Automatic annotation (TrEMBL):
Domain HTH crp-type: 168-242
PANTHER family in alphabetical order: CRP FAMILY TRANSCRIPTIONAL REGULATORY PROTEIN (PTHR24567), FUMARATE AND NITRATE REDUCTION REGULATORY PROTEIN (PTHR24567:SF75)
Signal peptide: none
Subunit structure: Homodimer.
SUPFAM superfamilies per the UniProt record, alphabetical: cAMP-binding domain-like, Winged helix' DNA-binding domain
Protein name: CRP-like protein Clp
Record keywords, A-Z: Activator, Allosteric enzyme, c-di-GMP, DNA-binding, Repressor, Transcription, Transcription regulation, Virulence
Primary location class: cytoplasm
UniProt source species: Stenotrophomonas bentonitica
Pfam families: cNMP_binding (PF00027), HTH_Crp_2 (PF13545)
Amino acid sequence: MTRPHSGTALSAVEDTAAPGCSPLRDCLHCSVRHLAVCSALSPDEVQALERVTVSQALPLGSTLARAGEPRQHVYTITAGALRLVRTLADGRRQISGFVLPGDFLGLSGSDHHRYDIEAIADSRVCRVALPQMKDLRSRFPHLERKLLQRACQELDAAQDAAMALGRLQPAEKVADFLLRLAAREALLGEPGLRVTLPMGRGDIADHLGLTMETVSRTFTKLRQQGLIALPHLNTVEILDEAGLQKLSADESY
Protein backbone atom coordinates (compact mmCIF):
# COMPACT_ATOMS: atom_id res chain seq x y z
CA MET A 1 0.00 0.00 0.00
CA THR A 2 2.91 2.33 -0.47
CA ARG A 3 3.52 2.87 -4.17
CA PRO A 4 2.20 6.17 -5.61
CA HIS A 5 0.71 6.56 -9.06
CA SER A 6 -1.32 9.16 -10.93
CA GLY A 7 -4.68 7.72 -9.92
CA THR A 8 -8.08 8.73 -11.19
CA ALA A 9 -10.26 8.40 -8.09
CA LEU A 10 -11.70 11.81 -7.22
CA SER A 11 -10.97 11.58 -3.49
CA ALA A 12 -7.39 10.52 -4.04
CA VAL A 13 -6.72 13.21 -6.65
CA GLU A 14 -8.13 15.89 -4.35
CA ASP A 15 -5.85 14.78 -1.51
CA THR A 16 -2.68 15.01 -3.58
CA ALA A 17 -2.61 18.76 -2.87
CA ALA A 18 -1.34 17.97 0.62
CA PRO A 19 2.47 17.80 0.89
CA GLY A 20 3.88 14.29 0.99
CA CYS A 21 0.64 12.67 -0.21
CA SER A 22 -0.09 10.57 -3.27
CA PRO A 23 -2.76 8.12 -4.45
CA LEU A 24 -2.03 4.44 -4.21
CA ARG A 25 -1.55 1.45 -6.40
CA ASP A 26 -0.50 -2.13 -5.83
CA CYS A 27 -1.78 -2.61 -2.28
CA LEU A 28 -1.50 -6.36 -2.84
CA HIS A 29 2.29 -6.08 -2.71
CA CYS A 30 2.45 -4.00 0.46
CA SER A 31 5.05 -5.50 2.81
CA VAL A 32 2.78 -5.16 5.86
CA ARG A 33 -0.51 -6.19 4.27
CA HIS A 34 -0.55 -9.49 6.21
CA LEU A 35 -0.62 -7.46 9.45
CA ALA A 36 -3.10 -4.81 8.35
CA VAL A 37 -6.89 -4.83 8.40
CA CYS A 38 -6.93 -4.76 4.59
CA SER A 39 -5.68 -8.37 4.65
CA ALA A 40 -9.37 -9.27 5.01
CA LEU A 41 -10.06 -8.05 1.47
CA SER A 42 -9.88 -10.10 -1.72
CA PRO A 43 -7.75 -8.84 -4.63
CA ASP A 44 -10.84 -7.38 -6.33
CA GLU A 45 -11.93 -5.67 -3.12
CA VAL A 46 -8.47 -4.23 -2.61
CA GLN A 47 -8.98 -2.24 -5.81
CA ALA A 48 -11.94 -0.52 -4.17
CA LEU A 49 -9.70 0.34 -1.22
CA GLU A 50 -6.95 1.68 -3.47
CA ARG A 51 -9.36 4.09 -5.13
CA VAL A 52 -10.05 5.89 -1.85
CA THR A 53 -6.64 5.57 -0.15
CA VAL A 54 -3.87 8.14 -0.07
CA SER A 55 -0.27 7.46 0.93
CA GLN A 56 1.01 10.18 3.26
CA ALA A 57 4.63 10.71 4.28
CA LEU A 58 5.38 11.79 7.85
CA PRO A 59 8.94 13.03 8.43
CA LEU A 60 10.54 12.49 11.82
CA GLY A 61 9.11 15.00 14.31
CA SER A 62 5.97 15.79 12.34
CA THR A 63 2.44 15.57 13.77
CA LEU A 64 -0.34 13.63 12.10
CA ALA A 65 -3.10 14.92 14.40
CA ARG A 66 -3.57 16.89 17.60
CA ALA A 67 -5.76 15.94 20.55
CA GLY A 68 -9.14 17.65 20.26
CA GLU A 69 -9.08 17.97 16.47
CA PRO A 70 -12.04 16.45 14.59
CA ARG A 71 -11.36 12.93 13.31
CA GLN A 72 -11.60 12.95 9.53
CA HIS A 73 -9.55 9.90 8.49
CA VAL A 74 -8.42 6.46 9.56
CA TYR A 75 -4.86 5.34 9.02
CA THR A 76 -2.74 2.24 8.52
CA ILE A 77 0.96 2.76 9.17
CA THR A 78 3.13 1.13 6.52
CA ALA A 79 6.60 2.33 7.56
CA GLY A 80 8.28 4.00 10.52
CA ALA A 81 6.75 4.51 13.95
CA LEU A 82 4.34 6.90 15.65
CA ARG A 83 3.57 7.66 19.29
CA LEU A 84 0.23 8.48 20.91
CA VAL A 85 0.76 11.28 23.41
CA ARG A 86 -1.51 12.90 25.97
CA THR A 87 -0.35 15.92 27.96
CA LEU A 88 -1.67 15.99 31.51
CA ALA A 89 -2.98 19.11 33.24
CA ASP A 90 0.29 19.59 35.13
CA GLY A 91 2.33 19.41 31.94
CA ARG A 92 3.51 15.82 32.31
CA ARG A 93 3.41 13.62 29.24
CA GLN A 94 1.87 10.16 29.01
CA ILE A 95 2.56 8.02 25.95
CA SER A 96 -0.39 5.72 25.53
CA GLY A 97 1.31 3.55 22.95
CA PHE A 98 3.47 3.24 19.88
CA VAL A 99 2.02 2.65 16.41
CA LEU A 100 4.10 0.32 14.25
CA PRO A 101 3.85 -0.96 10.65
CA GLY A 102 0.59 -2.84 10.12
CA ASP A 103 -1.23 -1.04 12.94
CA PHE A 104 -4.58 0.66 12.32
CA LEU A 105 -5.46 4.07 13.75
CA GLY A 106 -9.11 5.06 13.96
CA LEU A 107 -10.96 2.59 16.18
CA SER A 108 -12.64 5.19 18.38
CA GLY A 109 -16.12 6.14 19.49
CA SER A 110 -15.07 9.78 19.73
CA ASP A 111 -15.53 12.36 16.99
CA HIS A 112 -12.25 13.98 18.01
CA HIS A 113 -8.69 12.74 18.38
CA ARG A 114 -7.90 11.79 21.96
CA TYR A 115 -4.13 11.94 21.56
CA ASP A 116 -1.45 13.81 19.69
CA ILE A 117 -0.12 11.47 16.99
CA GLU A 118 3.55 12.17 16.33
CA ALA A 119 6.18 10.57 14.08
CA ILE A 120 9.23 9.30 16.00
CA ALA A 121 10.88 8.14 12.75
CA ASP A 122 10.45 8.89 9.08
CA SER A 123 7.10 7.23 8.52
CA ARG A 124 4.33 6.64 6.02
CA VAL A 125 0.62 5.98 6.49
CA CYS A 126 -2.25 4.98 4.25
CA ARG A 127 -5.14 7.39 4.80
CA VAL A 128 -8.84 6.84 4.14
CA ALA A 129 -11.59 9.40 4.82
CA LEU A 130 -14.12 8.29 7.45
CA PRO A 131 -17.15 8.32 5.10
CA GLN A 132 -15.30 6.19 2.58
CA MET A 133 -14.20 3.70 5.26
CA LYS A 134 -17.80 3.51 6.46
CA ASP A 135 -18.86 2.66 2.91
CA LEU A 136 -16.19 -0.05 2.62
CA ARG A 137 -17.26 -1.56 5.94
CA SER A 138 -20.86 -1.77 4.81
CA ARG A 139 -19.91 -3.30 1.44
CA PHE A 140 -17.42 -5.82 2.82
CA PRO A 141 -18.65 -7.44 6.07
CA HIS A 142 -15.38 -9.37 6.49
CA LEU A 143 -13.58 -6.01 6.75
CA GLU A 144 -15.97 -5.08 9.56
CA ARG A 145 -15.18 -8.36 11.31
CA LYS A 146 -11.44 -7.69 10.94
CA LEU A 147 -11.88 -4.28 12.52
CA LEU A 148 -13.84 -5.83 15.39
CA GLN A 149 -11.05 -8.36 15.89
CA ARG A 150 -8.50 -5.54 15.95
CA ALA A 151 -10.61 -3.61 18.48
CA CYS A 152 -10.66 -6.67 20.75
CA GLN A 153 -6.89 -7.05 20.44
CA GLU A 154 -6.40 -3.39 21.36
CA LEU A 155 -8.67 -3.82 24.39
CA ASP A 156 -6.59 -6.80 25.53
CA ALA A 157 -3.40 -4.78 25.03
CA ALA A 158 -4.83 -1.86 27.01
CA GLN A 159 -5.71 -4.18 29.89
CA ASP A 160 -2.20 -5.67 29.84
CA ALA A 161 -0.69 -2.18 29.84
CA ALA A 162 -2.84 -1.12 32.79
CA MET A 163 -1.66 -4.17 34.73
CA ALA A 164 1.97 -3.47 33.88
CA LEU A 165 1.74 0.17 34.95
CA GLY A 166 0.07 -0.69 38.22
CA ARG A 167 1.76 -3.88 39.39
CA LEU A 168 5.08 -4.61 37.70
CA GLN A 169 8.48 -3.46 38.90
CA PRO A 170 10.77 -1.47 36.53
CA ALA A 171 12.79 -4.50 35.34
CA GLU A 172 9.57 -6.45 34.76
CA LYS A 173 8.07 -3.57 32.78
CA VAL A 174 11.11 -3.22 30.53
CA ALA A 175 11.35 -6.99 29.98
CA ASP A 176 7.67 -7.13 29.04
CA PHE A 177 8.11 -4.16 26.68
CA LEU A 178 11.07 -5.74 24.89
CA LEU A 179 9.31 -9.08 24.48
CA ARG A 180 6.28 -7.42 22.92
CA LEU A 181 8.45 -5.51 20.47
CA ALA A 182 10.31 -8.71 19.61
CA ALA A 183 7.01 -10.46 18.91
CA ARG A 184 6.02 -7.64 16.54
CA GLU A 185 9.33 -7.77 14.68
CA ALA A 186 8.92 -11.52 14.24
CA LEU A 187 5.55 -10.91 12.56
CA LEU A 188 7.28 -8.52 10.16
CA GLY A 189 9.72 -11.28 9.24
CA GLU A 190 12.63 -9.80 11.18
CA PRO A 191 14.76 -11.85 13.59
CA GLY A 192 12.70 -11.83 16.77
CA LEU A 193 15.74 -11.72 19.07
CA ARG A 194 17.07 -8.43 17.69
CA VAL A 195 14.82 -5.51 18.55
CA THR A 196 15.01 -2.08 16.96
CA LEU A 197 13.88 0.76 19.22
CA PRO A 198 12.56 3.67 17.12
CA MET A 199 11.66 5.40 20.38
CA GLY A 200 14.14 6.97 22.79
CA ARG A 201 14.63 6.18 26.46
CA GLY A 202 12.46 9.17 27.39
CA ASP A 203 9.58 7.84 25.28
CA ILE A 204 9.90 4.40 26.86
CA ALA A 205 9.87 6.02 30.30
CA ASP A 206 6.73 8.05 29.57
CA HIS A 207 5.05 4.92 28.23
CA LEU A 208 5.94 2.67 31.16
CA GLY A 209 5.40 5.23 33.90
CA LEU A 210 9.09 5.39 34.84
CA THR A 211 11.81 8.03 34.78
CA MET A 212 14.34 8.11 31.96
CA GLU A 213 17.10 7.46 34.48
CA THR A 214 15.29 4.33 35.73
CA VAL A 215 14.86 3.04 32.18
CA SER A 216 18.56 3.58 31.43
CA ARG A 217 19.61 1.86 34.66
CA THR A 218 17.26 -1.03 33.94
CA PHE A 219 18.73 -1.58 30.48
CA THR A 220 22.17 -1.62 32.05
CA LYS A 221 21.02 -4.09 34.72
CA LEU A 222 19.51 -6.44 32.13
CA ARG A 223 22.75 -6.28 30.15
CA GLN A 224 24.83 -7.04 33.22
CA GLN A 225 22.61 -10.04 34.00
CA GLY A 226 23.31 -11.42 30.52
CA LEU A 227 19.67 -11.15 29.41
CA ILE A 228 20.29 -8.61 26.64
CA ALA A 229 23.10 -6.97 24.69
CA LEU A 230 23.13 -3.32 23.60
CA PRO A 231 25.22 -3.14 20.40
CA HIS A 232 23.72 0.27 19.55
CA LEU A 233 21.67 2.87 21.40
CA ASN A 234 18.53 1.90 19.49
CA THR A 235 19.17 -1.83 19.15
CA VAL A 236 18.64 -4.56 21.73
CA GLU A 237 19.72 -8.17 21.25
CA ILE A 238 17.81 -10.64 23.42
CA LEU A 239 20.40 -13.16 24.67
CA ASP A 240 18.19 -15.05 27.13
CA GLU A 241 14.58 -15.04 25.96
CA ALA A 242 13.46 -17.50 28.65
CA GLY A 243 15.07 -15.33 31.31
CA LEU A 244 13.24 -12.24 30.06
CA GLN A 245 9.96 -14.15 29.96
CA LYS A 246 10.45 -15.28 33.54
CA LEU A 247 11.30 -11.75 34.61
CA SER A 248 8.25 -10.28 32.84
CA ALA A 249 5.97 -12.64 34.81
CA ASP A 250 3.75 -12.89 31.73
CA GLU A 251 2.48 -16.37 30.87
CA SER A 252 1.28 -15.33 27.41
CA TYR A 253 4.75 -15.69 25.78
